[in-house]
Specification:
By secondary structure, this protein is mostly beta strands. It is built from two helices and 35 strands. Strands 21, 23, 24, 26, 31, 32, 33 and 35 form an eight-stranded antiparallel β-sheet that branches. It is elongated.
């Protein structure tokens, strides 16, 4: 499902009146979060929000098919997100994805609409945890009696001779600063073979709090006392109860829906493409758990290494989202992980439907995170759309690799003489629109053109007359199945251009702009909105 929205009045006015665009993109692909200040006093007040207005999300506002403003959600390399809702605000606490010796602080992000995210830097710093030295991991947030608790792993201990494990920090506000509550780990040793990492906290309807955790292929559950900083015991007098499901690796998570308890976890190696999420169910929070199956796995067309998830429910609804991390296709560094979320749905009998990584971007978040520009064009997300400004030409690409696909989006020419449209099955971006290999479906004021580009230049495959006025929005859709290529404009039932070509079989997708006679290099050439890509048939690469 896609949402058809006109460009905002502000954007349309800016384009038609020729207001200047910014000279550079506001953000590109996820960047190393080391750009954050190392000064703790400064970092803790560095709450950076997007420039777009933030609204408080009602249930209707938060009914999304996926992260419709685009995945990744935020700039920077992060992993292991855990979500909590405090008041009308959603708080996301991830691992800072760096080498272990550099994982010495935790950032948080807050949002009222799951679209605009405010960064709260260094909500927990390892300097405030006297026993922790490295590998600050997988924060798990929870509020109780007006205090905010953040459970975390530290030091990546490999046996009981080392100091480390699961700690707990406490604060008076969701954004911290959080301070170590105990001066020592809450769980500092292996029990039932479970490495003390990757904790999750769940408070049941009766008020009993549980902590689920474990690495090295074993999972435990423990009771938390009312103080949230000490462990209780089960009715048999034990403290640590093993609940390891089949193929468990790490990253346990618990939630409850309609009286059923869902235990989720990650399988496979965290640096490999086989990292994935599975789940089991039970009638009680301590099991026994029955494995049901896999929920989320890599999609070689979109991203790899998808795992270590959290879930969040919009209160008063049956709307659920699965938050997770994944590795962009072009990244090979194990720590280059980015945050994302998708809609999570259930069958009538309570089973979780397989979660698909969707590719959408309506630019409502006011950024271009995940897009990689090529050529000399400047790309900006403004007025809830993406604009491209150039004296010659350029393109910007998403890190995808589709074979058979349907790709569509709104294209608005901003100037007479400009050219703009969708690119697909692309390879090297090169410099400028003709320095890449792949296809482009572009609009000018009098035609729609389907072209193929390679190292030798750009070749027109087909063109059709079309009356396109500057400032007028058109829905462009491309369908590519094998060698059959079709382009639709507005009327999505009949193609305006249809050709057969076998030059390019798979690649990324994006958008391009080109200047023409009389165009103003200081003004946007075009605007793009509501971009969506999905596989067609069995040709998913």
């Amino acid at each position: 499902m896609r949402r058809l929205r006109a460009c905002s009045a502000a954007l349309a006015a800016a384009l038609l009146l020729g207001l200047p665009a910014a000279a550079t993109a506001d953000s590109t692909a996820p960047a190393d979060p080391s750009a954050a200040s190392d000064t703790r006093a400064d970092a803790r007040t560095d709450n950076v929000a997007s420039a777009a207005p933030v609204r408080t999300g009602t249930a209707a506002d938060l009914d999304y098919t996926t992260a419709e403003a685009g995945n990744p959600l935020v700039d920077g390399w992060y992993a292991d997100p855990d979500l909590a809702r405090y008041g009308d605000t959603y708080w996301m606490y991830p691992t800072t994805s760096r080498p272990y010796d550099e994982q010495t602080y935790l950032d948080a992000f807050s949002s009222t609409d799951l679209v605009h995210w405010t960064k709260h830097a260094k909500v927990l710093d390892i300097a405030d945890v006297p026993w922790a030295k490295r590998a600050l991991w997988a924060p798990a947030p929870v509020e109780r009696d007006g205090r905010y608790y953040l459970y975390f792993g530290a030091n990546d201990i490999q046996d009981d001779s080392e100091v480390g494990g699961i700690g707990v920090a406490v604060a008076d506000r969701p954004e911290g600063p959080y301070e170590d509550a105990l001066g020592e780990p809450l769980i500092g040793a292996f029990h039932n073979g479970a490495q003390p990492i990757d904790q999750d906290v769940f408070i049941d309807d009766d008020g009993q709090a549980y902590l689920y955790y474990g690495g090295h292929g074993h999972a435990n559950v423990v009771k938390l006392n009312d103080d949230m900083t000490s462990l209780g015991t089960f009715e048999d007098g034990t403290t640590f109860r093993e609940i390891t499901p089949e193929n468990y690796t790490e990253g346990s998570l618990m939630f409850q829906r309609d009286g059923t308890y869902y235990l989720m976890w990650s399988e496979g190696g965290w640096t490999g493409p086989d990292y994935s999420v599975s789940y089991a169910t039970a009638d009680s929070p301590t099991g026994p758990f029955r494995k049901v199956g896999r929920v989320l796995e890599q999609d070689p067309s979109v991203a790899r290494g998808s795992g270590h998830n959290s879930v969040v429910n919009v209160p008063g609804t049956d709307i659920w989202y699965l938050f997770y991390h994944r590795r962009p296709l072009s990244e090979t560094d194990g720590n280059h992980r980015a945050l994302a979320y998708e809609r999570m749905e259930f069958t009538d009998d309570g089973a979780i439907r397989p979660v698909t990584m969707k590719v959408r971007d309506n630019f409502d978040d006011g950024n271009t995170v995940g897009w990689k520009p090529h050529g000399d064009a400047a790309w900006n997300a403004e007025g809830d759309a993406l604009t491209g400004t150039s004296a010659s030409a350029g393109l910007t690409l998403q890190d995808t690799d589709f074979a058979d696909l349907a790709y569509e989006g709104d294209v608005t020419l901003a100037q007479e003489g400009a050219e703009a449209g969708l690119v697909f099955r692309t390879g090297d971006g090169g410099s400028g629109p003709d320095g890449f290999r792949g296809y482009s479906a572009t609009l000018t004021t009098d035609a729609v053109t389907l072209s193929a580009s390679d190292a030798d230049g750009r070749t027109t495959l087909a063109t059709a007359p079309l009356d396109v006025a500057a400032g007028e929005r058109h829905r462009v859709r491309v369908e590519a199945v094998g060698t059959d290529l079709r382009v639709y404009v507005d009327d999505l039932a009949e193609p305006v251009v249809s050709v057969t070509d076998d030059a390019h079989t798979t690649g990324g997708d994006g958008v391009r702009v080109g200047a023409g006679d009389g165009t103003d290099p200081a003004r946007p050439l075009a605007a793009f909105d509501d971009l969506a890509v999905e596989p067609l048939g069995a040709g998913r690469h």
